[in-house]
Amino acid sequence: MVEFKNVSMSYDKEHDVLKDISFKLEPGSMHFLTGPSGAGKTSLLKLMYLAHRPTRGEIMMFGRDVAKAERQDLPKLRRRIGVVFQDFRLLDHMSAVDNVALPLRISGGTGAHINEHVEELLRWVGLQDKMSSTPSTLSGGEKQRVAIARAVIRRPDILLADEPTGNVDPEMAERLMYLFVELNKLGTTIIIATHDNSLVKKIGAPRLHLVGGKLLHIEGSKKDIADYITARKGLNE
Questions:
Q1: Contact in structure between 205 and 191 (CB atoms under 8 Å)
Q2: Per the domain annotation, does 69 fall within a domain?
Q3: CA dihedral 161, 162, 168, 174 (to 10 degrees)
Q4: How far does CA 159 lie from the centroid of its chain?
Q5: What does the pLDDT look like over 159-174, one tens digit per residue?
Q6: Number of domains into which the chain is organized
Q7: How far from 197 is each of 130, 152, 170, CA to CA, in Å?
Q8: What's the whole-model pTM score?
Q9: How many other β-carbons are positioned within 10 Å of the β-carbon of residue 16?
Q10: In the predicted model, is pLDDT for residue 7 greater than 90?
């Protein structure tokens, strides 16, 4: 699904924030992206959602080198990628329903079935009582869940989340992580940047660890994720 080959990136063409990064993510996998502040996690995500191009190296996504893709091809590629931004990026004048429905409408969807699908997803993330609310009336955790619903509404092939639990309490953080795990079970490849090592250890998904713009691999396993799902189901029951 994703392969970086000796990728480096700089913003000023002099100082690399990412240095000779190479890794491969299989379709339907789930990984955490960890590392101290300034390690390059957000920069790596920007390359993956095609907001920037690398200074050097190849980035293979969906079977093509997206680093060399023509500008007119980028919107089509981006529609296969869902992104949960650290600052939410919700539209303040729109309700929760309209914010979540926006990706469907931009891609040409019409009709009442859009709202039905959106409302079902908002109920799934526990916002059944906030559908008509605008972002200014929502808490940080509620905004985060709206942002997550918007990112997954089109069932993206890849979901990228930048510190998705950074603005919520520990209980809500674990609830949101469980939603990501469930989405991963449906086949979406997921990469989550986080500072919360307790959640990383609890879920046990493989970890991509950045230090000073360089990548280390710290492995987990699908069995660890399966054990986490079983434990959460026990709590939910």
A1: no
A2: no
A3: 50
A4: 4
A5: 999 988 877 778 777 7
A6: 1
A7: 31, 24, 12
A8: 0.84
A9: 20
A10: yes
